[in-house]
Every structure is written in structure tokens, then in C-alpha cells.
């Protein structure tokens, strides 16, 4: 739930940011007729966003509510923030995030990602953990650029940070009921408050269901794919041991029974990136069986302990967490059957299972003052064990285990030279060790190990030109540890290893409130270079998933967003990002598809054609992205009617490392709409929603080794939601 106080800290810079609009705050907003002050926790302190010399973005309450209407998952965040993109070929698990073009297209359950996902200050490192359902959120922030001097886990691309609503002394909560097309049903709610003067608790739940709606034209079975049952719960208790020491414990779990991504065979003609007549939104042509019907089943459990001890001069904080997940899924990789659609040279089905356990400890000491010289430092420990089973169905399944141990020390210092000029600097030392073990395979490989250590850091300058306008600059150096890919052992291939990548980034930006605080404008110019960037060569005629390092990768771009309140009941927001990415390696070659038109230069190596990819853009890095929202409201009696719409745009995007006529997209867009009535007296909202209201079929990814296979976005969804809040 979003309370008035929580929303004040919920939104952040350089994105589509909306002012808080909890029912109780509505009258205050109208009286002020100005944009609300925004506070964020980018530096692990509550600060005015205009005072933070970091490029941050956020999703506001109303935008988040609209995106998640009717059972939206974490992928709905894609394109809603300038510079942020997300996609997945693993259904409702294993999202892949990209910030400023930097990400990883690897679909394996052991994939390493340069974008960190942090939930309640705990890193969700494995891709299964990243997909935990989003509900009862307090704030969502996106940090662009290398991070590491403040948070436990370092990243080269950035951080997507989720903070859930916490227990408070006052009783509050909400209940939301929703229903829509495809038989969708959503029940969501939370209740929390003080039990005694020193003890508080909060319980949050979400049950999200959708009926099967995709038919199998090959077996003539109707509505057997596309549905899901996704249930999650979170329980938090907080106690004040003394007036200086508090503890909070959190437990969360998830149970998902759903459908893997629907791959669609030969929906792209050779030489074209447009969906052809083989594509039908609600029909595929699989030759699977009831036992292996594109299923996806996963369970998560997470335990976290938080401690804060006030030492007068500083606060000592501890965060410990144990996260577990296990499950499996099946995918019809070729997207069809022996008879088509189109030419399918051979059948390809894969089942994957995973069992992950992640243990983290973070100890941090932070000064208690907010001006002059402020500082914080910490120690971080990360230990994970992931067992992955891959069954290709033409030979014995393989089982491998990934072990990863990491520790780091980090710190940051901020100094106010004047009331207007602030310098911020941070350093981090990271030691990382990884091992891949053969539990069961057809090639019986020896243990594969990597280890590396690096120093990374950042330096930023913030200057207040006036009370309403500030400029900032930031230099950062990031580090991503070596990665190991073990999926290919299931297909008689050797494991692959990518060495460490480092990134050096620089950006300058502005933050300002104009027109008597009715227009907020934020801009940023950035450039970065990645040395030894880690890429994943997926597919090709060999159907392998191989890690590789390019020599260099370079990118530059611009981001801006604005928030404009022309009149008290009409709000516009917009965001735009342009990013130019380029692989720089004259000798880098990758496998290609046999049935498509590759536009890169080709070379023959050991009788096999490969593509030279020097100069290509990073895969899944949209050149242009944009978003636009508008919210209008009109007071009616003791309430209001409102209309909210959001639109996103995705420009040219290359899907693989090599370039071809088929596997790229451009000019894609989606829109959402929410119409409703709010009764302030009863704190009750009734709203009609629509997602992808123009029913666009947008290609989100492809598979190239067998035929021109693609997968697409969610269909048009619409329905009604009723929300009752209480305080």
C-alpha cells in the first residue's frame, strides 16, 4: 500500500514521476497546485532528490498501479523509465534487465546479470529470485551506471531497487479485488500496525490467476496454454528492543504454477522482421504431451533479518538473508511440430530445473549527521549454491552445480564545501570465487573455477545553481566478476567462461523545478566504455549458449524526463532516452542462423560460417525509448473521477549479437488506460483498466538455430479493480 508519508519517499529522478495521490492527500495536493517534494534513499539516507548527484529514476504510485493492473509482473517495468529495458524468454521467471543498453541475453537459470535487483536491501542475484511478485510496494527506484560503494552487491550497469511497505505504529491496510478477460482474478491486500508500543507487524498477500487461453492447433485442444496461478505472501515483524536498537524480521514465499514462454515457429519470413501469416496470438502448433505441456512451476522462500543500533555518532546496521527457490519448466524450443508451421528441420524440446540457495550478510556503519562531512562503510558476504538440471530429451539429462562466494568492503564519504557545493566519493574492494561442478553429464568435465578481485569506485560533484536548479557530474568505475556457463554440457559441449569486465562511466546532468514548482525537468548526458564486456552467443546453427568477451564496448546517450502540472487536476509526465552502443572487436565472430539473411561480414572457420560483429550494437539495447503519461481528475461530491493513461515506445533493437534482416525490431509501442472513481469518505476506488489497449503484437525476442522463431508481448488485457483502503 502507498500511504501519504510513504509516497513522499517513493519516487525519484529522471523518469516519469507522478506526485503522490493517496486518497487522504488529495485535498492537500489540490490546495498546493504544485509538484510535491520528492525524497529518495539513493545514498542509504532520506534526501531530497535534487540534492543527490546520481542519475536515479522511479515508478510512481499511480503509474505502478496501472502497470500491474490485471496481474502484471515485473516485466511491466520495461520502457517505463528512460534507459531501462526488460524482457524474458522464461515466462514469469528469470527477467533480464538492461540499463543504458548494458545487460545479458543469456536465458540460462545460472546466468550472470550486470543489473542488480535489490528487494528490501537484499540482492536477488539468481534470475529466479529476481522475479518475485511485486505488491504492497513503498517505492521503486532505478540507479543508472556502475554501483558498489553503497550497496552490498556491485553492478556494472545499475540497480533496480524495490522497497516494500513496512510495519508502522498506526493501523493501515488495503484490499484489492480484480477481474478481467482471460478469466483473470487478482486478490491483493495488506494489514499492519502496532501491537504494543514497541512491537509492530504487517502481512501482505497477492493471489494472481489467469485461465489458459492459447489453443494447440496441431492437437486440436482448446485453451491449454497461457494461464498461471501465482500466489505470494510476506510477513514482517518489527520490535524496538530499546529506544536505540530495533530489529525487523521478514519472511516471504511464492508458489507459481504457470506457462513457459510460447515460442512460435517460422513467424518471420526470410528477409523480413514482420510477423507473417503463421502467427496467431491465441494458437500454436506444438506436438507436446500432457506431461510436458510448456509448464512452469517454481517455489520461493526468503528469510531476512534487519538490525539498527543507534550509537549517537553513527548507526550500526546489519542485514542477513537466506533466499531459496526451486522448480522446473518445459519449453517447446522449435515452436512447432514435424509438419510446421513452415520448415522445421528437427524437433527441439528442453526441460530445466533449478534449486538455488543464497546466503548474504551485510554490516554497515553510517554517520548520523546529514550535513558537513557524512560517511558510511560496510562489509558484505555473499554465498550461493545453484544446482541446474537440463534435459534435452535426446540423451541423458545433465546436472551441474554453480558455487559462488563473494566478499567486499565498501564505503562512501560526502563533504559539503559550501551550502551549494558537495563532493561525494566512494570505494569498493571485491573478491569473487566461482566453481562449476559436474554432478551428472555426458562429457565428465573437471571442475571449472574462476577467481578475481578488483577495486572500483565513484566520484561525484553536485552544485546548487539556485534553490530550484542544480547540476551534477559523476565518474564511476565498475567491476563484474568472471562468469561460467554450464548449459552446453547437456548438448555435449564444453562449459564456457568469460573473464571479468570493467566499465568506466561519466555523466553530467541537471535537476530543476521551474514555473513556481509546477514543472520538474531532469536531464543527463552519459558515456561509458566496457573493457572485456561479457556477451552471450545464443543459438546459431550449433544451438549453443556460449560466454565470450569482446575487446571493448562503448556507449553514449542522453536521458531526460519532465513532470508538468499545468492546472491542479491535470498532470503530464514524459521520459526519453537515446543510447548508441557499439561492440568494438575486429576479430570477434559468432555463430549465425542458417535460414536468415545475415547482414554482417561472414567468414568460414573450420567449414562453418561465422559473422564478424565489430561495430554492432549491444543485443537487446533499444536505440530510442520513450514514455508518456497523463492523469486528469475532476472533483465530484465527496470524491473524484479520474483518467490515467500511459504510453511507451521502443525504437530499433537488435535481438542477437550478429545482425540480420529478421531478428531486429523497431517502432514498437504499447498503451495503458485506467478510468475510475475515488470516494474520499470511504477510501474506496473503483477502476476500469486496460493494458496494451491497441492489442499490439510486439516481438520481444527470437530463436534462430532451427527456424525463424519469435516470442511476443502480452495480449490486450482489460478488467475492473476495486480497492478499499483503511487507516
From TrEMBL:
Residue ranges of every copy of the TonB-dependent receptor-like beta-barrel domain listed in the record: 276-693
Alphabetic keyword roster: Cell outer membrane, Ion transport, Iron, Iron transport, Membrane, Receptor, Signal, TonB box, Transmembrane, Transmembrane beta strand, Transport
InterPro entries: Beta-barrel_TonB, Beta-barrel_TonB_sf, Plug_dom, TonB-dep_rcpt-like
Membrane topology annotation: Multi-pass membrane protein
Keyword Signal tagged: yes
Localisation: Cell outer membrane
Signal peptide region: 1-24
Keyword flag Transmembrane: yes
Pfam families: Plug, TonB_dep_Rec_b-barrel
UniProt main location, coarse: membrane
Domain (TonB-dependent receptor plug): residue spans on this chain: 50-159
GO biological process: iron ion transport
GO CC annotation terms, alphabetical: cell outer membrane
Family: Belongs to the TonB-dependent receptor family.
Name of the protein in question: TonB-dependent receptor
Organism field: Paraferrimonas sedimenticola
Amino acid at each position: 500500500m502507498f500511504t501519504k508519508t510513504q509516497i513522499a519517499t517513493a519516487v525519484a529522478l529522471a523518469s516519469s514521476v507522478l506526485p503522490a495521490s493517496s486518497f487522504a492527500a488529495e485535498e492537500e495536493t489540490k490546495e498546493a497546485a504544485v509538484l510535491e517534494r520528492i525524497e529518495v534513499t539513493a545514498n542509504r539516507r532520506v534526501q531530497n532528490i535534487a540534492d543527490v548527484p546520481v542519475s536515479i529514476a522511479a515508478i510512481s504510485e499511480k503509474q505502478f498501479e496501472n502497470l500491474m493492473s490485471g496481474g502484471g509482473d515485473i516485466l511491466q517495468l520495461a520502457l517505463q523509465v528512460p534507459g531501462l529495458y526488460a524482457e524474458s524468454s522464461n515466462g514469469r521467471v528469470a527477467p533480464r534487465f538492461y540499463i543504458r543498453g548494458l545487460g545479458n541475453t543469456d536465458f540460462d537459470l545460472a546466468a550472470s546479470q550486470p543489473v542488480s535487483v535489490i528487494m528490501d536491501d537484499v540482492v536477488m542475484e539468481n534470475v529466479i529470485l529476481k522475479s518475485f511478485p511485486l505488491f504492497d510496494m513503498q517505492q521503486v527506484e532505478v540507479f543508472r551506471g556502475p554501483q558498489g560503494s553503497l550497496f552490498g552487491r556491485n553492478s556494472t550497469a545499475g540497480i533496480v531497487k524495490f522497497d516494500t511497505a513496512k510495519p508502522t505504529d498506526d493501523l493501515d491496510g488495503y484490499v484489492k479485488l480484480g477481474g478481467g478477460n482471460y478469466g483473470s482474478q487478482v486478490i491483493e491486500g495488506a494489514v499492519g500496525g502496532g501491537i504494543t508500543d514497541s512491537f509492530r507487524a504487517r502481512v501482505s498477500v497477492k493471489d494472481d490467476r489467469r485461465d489458459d487461453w492459447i489453443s494447440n492447433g496441431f492437437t486440436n485442444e482448446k485453451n491449454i496454454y497461457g494461464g498461471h496461478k501465482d500466489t505470494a505472501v510476506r510477513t514482517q515483524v518489527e520490535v524496538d528492543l530499546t529506544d536505540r536498537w530495533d530489529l525487523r524480521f521478514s519472511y516471504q514465499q511464492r508458489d507459481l504454477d504457470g506457462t513457459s514462454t510460447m515460442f512460435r515457429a517460422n513467424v518471420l519470413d526470410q528477409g523480413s522482421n514482420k510477423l507473417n501469416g503463421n502467427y496467431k496470438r491465441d494458437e500454436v502448433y506444438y506436438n507436446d504431451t500432457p506431461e510436458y505441456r510448456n509448464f512452469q512451476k517454481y517455489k520461493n522462500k526468503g528469510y531476512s533479518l534487519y538490525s539498527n543500533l543507534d550509537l549517537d555518532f553513527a548507526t550500526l546496521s546489519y542485514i542477513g538473508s537466506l533466499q531459496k527457490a526451486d522448480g522446473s519448466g518445459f519449453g517447446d524450443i522449435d515452436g512447432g511440430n514435424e509438419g510446421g508451421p513452415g520448415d522445421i528441420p528437427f524437433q527441439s524440446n528442453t526441460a530445466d530445473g533449478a534449486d538455488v540457495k543464497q546466503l548474504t550478510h551485510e554490516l554497515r556503519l553510517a554517520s548520523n549527521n546529514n550535513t558537513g562531512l557524512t560517511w558510511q562503510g560496510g562489509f558484505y558476504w555473499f554465498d550461493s549454491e545453484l544446482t541446474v538440471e537440463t534435459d534435452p530429451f535426446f540423451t541423458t539429462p545433465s546436472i551441474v552445480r554453480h558455487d559462488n562466494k563473494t566478499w567486499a568492503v565498501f564505503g562512501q564519504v560526502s563533504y559539503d564545501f559550501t551550502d551549494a557545493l558537495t563532493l561525494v566519493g566512494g570505494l569498493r574492494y571485491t573478491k569473487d570465487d566461482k566453481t562449476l561442478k559436474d554432478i551428472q553429464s555426458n562429457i565428465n568435465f573437471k571442475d571449472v573455477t574462476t577467481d578475481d578481485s578488483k577495486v572500483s569506485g565513484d566520484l561525484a560533484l553536485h552544485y546548487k545553481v539556485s534553490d530550484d536548479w542544480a547540476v551534477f557530474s559523476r565518474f564511476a568505475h565498475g567491476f563484474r566478476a568472471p562468469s561460467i556457463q554450464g548449459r552446453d554440457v547437456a548438448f555435449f559441449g564444453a562449459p564456457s567462461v568469460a573473464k571479468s569486465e570493467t566499465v568506466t562511466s561519466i555523466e553530467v546532468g541537471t535537476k530543476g523545478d521551474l514555473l513556481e514548482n509546477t514543472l520538474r525537468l531532469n536531464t543527463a548526458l552519459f558515456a561509458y566504455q566496457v573493457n572485456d564486456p561479457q556477451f552471450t552467443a545464443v543459438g546459431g546453427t550449433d544451438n549453443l549458449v556460449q560466454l565470450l568477451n569482446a575487446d571493448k564496448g562503448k556507449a553514449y546517450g542522453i536521458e531526460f524526463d519532465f513532470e508538468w502540472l499545468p492546472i491542479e487536476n491535470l498532470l503530464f509526465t514524459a521520459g526519453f532516452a537515446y543510447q548508441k552502443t557499439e561492440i568494438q572487436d575486429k576479430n570477434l565472430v559468432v555463430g549465425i542462423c542458417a535460414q536468415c539473411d545475415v547482414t554482417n561480414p561472414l567468414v568460414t572457420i573450420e567449414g562453418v560460417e561465422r559473422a564478424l560483429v565489430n561495430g554492432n550494437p549491444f543485443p537487446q539495447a533499444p536505440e530510442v525509448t520513450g514514455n508518456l503519461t497523463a492523469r486528469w481528475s475532476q472533483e465530484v461530491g465527496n470524491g473524484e473521477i479520474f483518467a490515467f493513461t500511459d504510453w511507451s515506445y521502443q525504437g530499433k533493437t537488435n535481438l542477437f549479437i550478429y545482425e540480420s534482416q529478421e531478428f531486429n525490431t523497431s517502432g514498437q509501442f504499447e498503451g495503458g488506460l485506467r478510468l475510475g472513481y475515488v470516494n474520499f469518505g470511504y477510501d474506496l476506488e473503483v477502476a476500469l483498466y486496460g493494458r496494451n489497449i491497441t492489442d499490439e503484437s510486439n516481438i520481444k525476442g527470437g530463436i534462430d538455430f532451427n527456424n525463424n522463431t519469435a516470442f511476443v508481448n502480452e495480449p490486450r488485457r482489460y478488467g475492473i479493480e476495486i480497492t478499499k483502503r483503511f487507516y
